[in-house]
Amino acid sequence: MWRLLVCLIGAVVLAGCVGTMLPGRMYASPNGQILKFEIETSYGQGKMTAFNDQTGEKFTGEYSAMHRGQGMTFGNVGRSNVTLFQPPTGANGQGVLVGDQGTMIRVYLEIRPGLRPTGHGSGVDQNGGRYELFF
């Protein structure tokens, strides 16, 4: 009973974190320009935004990610049934950022779950420009 209560409280606390925008940065290469970047915490899909200070271009977009490394094991110990759950070790995702001046960046993400998720990724725009993302 105590374990169930702790799990329910934990779920409520974590649910409050969903929808929060995490700050990050995008580094454009080869010029090293830094773009402001934000990604929404979510379960499976969310929003992204970016801003290029030099050009004034505002980007909005979305991403989708799938967990990896999770599983369940069932068994018996004595006369008791046991279920073990392995939480996800991360998530892989893809997304797109579309700028108001016509730039479109295709993004690939690796996300590490947690109370404050972290991650990194890479992107490429339609002109061959490359980006590294960190959040």
Tell me what you see in this structure.
The protein has one helix spanning 2-15, and strands at residues 21-29, 34-40, 45-51, 58-68, 71-77, 80-86, 90-99, 104-112, 118-125, 130-134. It is mostly beta strands and 135 residues long. The protein has one domain (18-134). The strands form two sheets. It has an eight-stranded antiparallel barrel. The chain has a two-stranded antiparallel sheet with strand order 5-6. The longest helix is centred in the first third of the chain and has 14 residues, at 2-15. It is elongated and about 65 Å long. It starts with a helix and ends with a strand.
Strand tally: 10
Please tally the helical runs, counting DSSP H or I stretches of 4 or more residues. 1
Taking all Cα atoms into account, the compactness measure Rg is 19 Å
Sheet-strand content, in percent, reads: over 45%
Query: Low-confidence segments, ≥5 residues, pLDDT <50?
Result: 12-16
Q: Mean pLDDT, as a whole number?
A: 87
Brief descriptors of the model:
135 residues, mainly beta, eight-stranded antiparallel beta barrel, two-stranded antiparallel ribbon, 1 helix, 10 strands, 59% strand
Q: In a few lines, what is going on in this structure?
A:
With 135 residues, the protein is mostly beta strands. The protein has one helix spanning 2-15; strands spanning 21-29, 34-40, 45-51, 58-68, 71-77, 80-86, 90-99, 104-112, 118-125, 130-134. The strands form 2 sheets. It has an 8-stranded antiparallel barrel. The chain has a two-stranded antiparallel ribbon with strand order 5-6.
